[in-house]
Amino acid sequence: MAPVILLAIESSCDETSASIIQDGEILSNIIYTQTIHEKYGGVVPESASRLHIRHILPVVHEAFLQSGIAKEQLSAIAYTQSPGLIGSLLVGASFAKGMAQALDIPLIAVNHMQAHVLSNLIESPRPNFPFLCLTVSGGHTQIVQCNAPLDMHILGESIDDAAGEAFDKAAKMLGLPYPGGPLVDKHAKNGNPLAYKFAEPLVADLNYSFSGLKTSILYFLQKEKAKDETFIEKNLSDLCASIQYTIIKILLKKLMLASKQTGIKDICIAGGVSANSGLRDAIQSHAARYRWNYFIPKFEYCTDNAAMIAITAYYKYLQGEFSEIAVGASARSTF
């Protein structure tokens, strides 16, 4: 039986990534991260799409080189179809469609958020089905129940801002450069997580809200800076630790409730914020306390990457879930 070999492309935001997978094993995972956005304090959509155009060909070329695979060996080509920045998505989609037509092989459209969940299946040990996945990124926060690779549904999600956005906006309030989330994590390691108390929004069911937390942080900082303009500088580590502690507490409170309601003990985290050391430590601690089996992808599979698109596409290929050339990219999730 011929091997299943796929090229996967990820271009939903500001990472241009390509991956080659063969029979479920990742052979290469090349990621180019755009650093130009740091000076603007956030991702500039037009600049992001232009940089994708510039870098997608060399990234794909490197993925082939590292894998030792030739394009003629491909069984299909996968790409991120949604959600994300529409200009960035269109670059990856257009490249994938053009190459698939040139090689006369199938296309596989992949949902970015489903791919984050399935990043937990890239390497061993892998969770058993069904499992719960807390997916936390800059744009999304969700608790997903995964019954099979292609059978998953959202149990809860943020009704406004995502946890990753809360990290970055809080960092900006503290005067930290973009991307601020990793810097909050860095400073938090030297601080007291109980030094300051911030609002914990009350949201029904398994949903989240982080807009009230951001407002709470803003008003607190304004009040303290009115007393002492150097307040943030003097207490940066404690502020970061307290903010991080609050966000993680909000996240895990609903995750614990989801586990209790479903009876599921295999717990995963995914998305860019799953690289946060405080969240990883908290998951480990909760796993010991509540007898969870917990799973966290390697760092390179937490942030946006094509390997997670590849593993999702592999399962779709096995089920014959191919896409028509007319399927368009979508900024909104088609989860």
Give the secondary structure arrangement, pairings included.
Layout: E1 5-10, E2 15-22, E3 25-33, H1 45-67, E4 76-82, H2 86-103, E5 107-111, H3 112-118, E6 131-136, E7 141-148, E8 151-157, H4 163-173, H5 181-188, H6 211-227, H7 231-234, H8 236-262, E9 266-270, H9 277-290, E10 293-295, H10 306-318
Offer a concise description of the structure:
With 335 residues, the protein is of the alpha/beta class. It has helices at 45-67, 86-103, 112-118, 163-173, 181-188, 211-227, 231-234, 236-262, 277-290, 306-318; strands at residues 5-10, 15-22, 25-33, 76-82, 107-111, 131-136, 141-148, 151-157, 266-270, 293-295.
Report on this structure:
- With 335 residues, this protein is an alpha/beta fold.
- It folds into two domains: 5-117 and 302-318, ATPase, nucleotide binding domain (Nucleotidyltransferase, domain 5), CATH 3.30.420.40; 127-296, ATPase, nucleotide binding domain (Nucleotidyltransferase, domain 5, 2-Layer Sandwich), CATH 3.30.420.40.
- 42% of the residues lie in helices and 19% in strands.
- It is built from ten helices and ten strands.
- The protein has helices at residues 45-67, 86-103, 112-118, 163-173, 181-188, 211-227, 231-234, 236-262, 277-290, 306-318, and strands spanning 5-10, 15-22, 25-33, 76-82, 107-111, 131-136, 141-148, 151-157, 266-270, 293-295.
- It has a five-stranded mixed β-sheet, sandwiched between helices. The chain has a five-stranded mixed β-sheet with strand order 8-7-6-9-10, sandwiched between helices.
- A hairpin with a 2-residue loop joins strand 7 and strand 8 (151-157).
- Helix 1 (45-67) runs parallel beside helix 2 and helix 3 (112-118) packs across helix 10 (306-318).
- The mean pLDDT is 95.
